[in-house]
Amino acid sequence: MYALWLVVCYKANDINSVVWAYAVEIIAVSVAMIGFFYNAGYVFGQPKPWHSLFFSMIGAMLCVMCIADERYFGMQLIFISTALMFMYYTWVIIQNMGKKPQKVQPLWTMASTGSDKKFRGMIHGIFYLFCQQTANFTPAARRRLRFRRRLYGRCGSSRSHFSTGS
Known about the structure:
This protein is mostly helical. It has seven helices and no strands. Helix 1 packs antiparallel against helix 2. 14% of the residues are buried.
């Protein structure tokens, strides 16, 4: 969204000779894109907390600065929400700075690293939770559960999660 916003902002203002009329908006959107990029590093297992903090704080400040300019109301709402998101990200990062990070293996690498049994157990555990939400099991659903239990076994667990009650 922000990349498209940069292109649209440039196209709308390319004939404007007063660069500072839209330069703060372009700088704010660019810093917001970089801030979201560094905050996405937490999801993909490669966090950089100092970079995330810096760009979140600078992005929030620039977004608040852009609210003071005359813009469309929708753009001001986007700037406000972006500033609030960056302030929240900053608070979360600061709250978790002193804690030791947990070593978590990403889901997509579990099947390829030899822990296939654990991966299958997790997938079937999710399937079990989904099936628990449905109140009425049809006979076909019971047969599928029994088949999966026979096919994959218990995947190392001491008790069966796939009991069908029949």
